[in-house]
Design brief:
mainly alpha, two-stranded antiparallel ribbon, globular, Rab-GAP_TBC_sf
Length: 542
Amino acid sequence: MADDDSSTGSAVSSDGGCRPMDVMFLRLLVEKAVLAKGASAGINSISTSKRSLPSTGAAKHDTDPMAMCREAIQEYLRHTAMKHSLQQQKAWIQPPVLGDVELDFFQAARQAWHRKIDCRLNLIITEHHMPLTLPSTSPNSATLPSREVFVDRTRPEPLKTSMFVYDHQDLLREYLALRNPNMREDAYAPLEFAGPRFATPSLSALRSLLHDLNPSLPQEAKIRISRRCWTQYNASPNQPSQATAAPFVGGKHKPSLPNTNHCLCPTLATHAMPYITSGCPVAQRATLWYMATCGADPNDYALKYDELWHEIRQVRRPVDHLLAADAKYQTNLDDNYFVFYDVILEVMIALIRDPALSSEYGCTSLGADVVPNGIVPFRGLCLFVAPLAFIYPRTPQLYRVFVKLYTRYFRLLHTLNEYPNGIARLSQTFLDLMQVRLPHLLLHLKGLGVNPLEIAFPWMFQAFSGYLLPEQVLLLWDRIIGFDTLHVLPLLSFALFAFRQRALAVARTKRDVEFVMADLRSIAVVPLMQYALFARDIATAA
């Protein structure tokens, strides 16, 4: 065995001596080799070999210990080669992990998904005889209706409030139907309810990424926003900022924050992140979120918002009725959001009709007469706006922050994409966490015919808005903005299963599982994420 000799030579020199590498490893191999033979006299030979092996250097010693080392190493190499051969024969069991590359089959599936959306939207418009454009004023009226009047006159009729183009179930079916043509169909057998595998962060990578969630660190920052500006923004937008005194907050020195009413600079987002990761104070969340998302933008959002609505008020579009139906349906289900119906509908109409949002954010190829910027309203779109209504009393500022959050994060949750923060990889991350940390629960659910992704997918699709209390949703979104990642969504989804694993273990039907995971109103998100991320043995900790 030439390979064995060469491999053995790396640990044992040609003259019978031992190279100064890892003597403890050789001793361990000797012990395993002797114990495997079952010789009663082997214990004495082990102690003899331990005394014979040198700690350093390459001196010559008796041949018996080294012969035992060679035999043990060769046996180990033969065992490794056999194991590797078996793994090669069964390599198809584990699907290959897809990296950050453009996937032809994924692009084809995305194009087919967009065609389905186009057909559904055309069908809704045709069946209800909805005109593509309708002037918002009568021929005898020379003035446009105000923004409030336009929103008040936007009704779901002739649509029903339950009418929608697509929802999370449609997208989940498309994801589960994805198959890599370069892979055998049997490769999906182990889980049966997962799509193609993607490169997802490991548990250690998640702990490093979300390090500020460590239970030893404070999660409620008590900060003070400085009223002194770093720079006079009126002089030059690119003028470098001058830092003020850094207060001692949460065990760390953090820079004071400027007053965004007077100055803006590109470094505001960087300085706001350390505060957001540990949870924003309620009174300062609006300022911190605006600094983190819009800190580098000019402070003219109110003027642009008025200009946008001047164009919107001229004509009505079919999507206005879809937006009104979704807003009416969702706000009627939640007592926390029904008072914000007018604000939610106004912001959603502005989003769909905003020409500044290019078609890359949309999922349709229909013309501008149907969908002005390509963004098709789906069931639950208004739930991304509703939590922001609690912290932004001014609609123009709310819209500016919402657009930033939508284009950077939320649009990835309801489209087929292979981005690291896309819904496909988030779903794979959730399943990987279940398989690694709760394999017994995963097998139990599989035996009941329950796909845990069917339960967790709606949570991630809506970023938990509508499922948690508004206060907990805002705390969760603090971490999304602060850590600049959506991986807190699969982490929290996994944490909910881990938290209720005892109740799930005694479930006997799919209906029992759905009943256990139905109500999330009493959940506190931060302790659960800490528990799921940093608990040593989560299977026995619950």
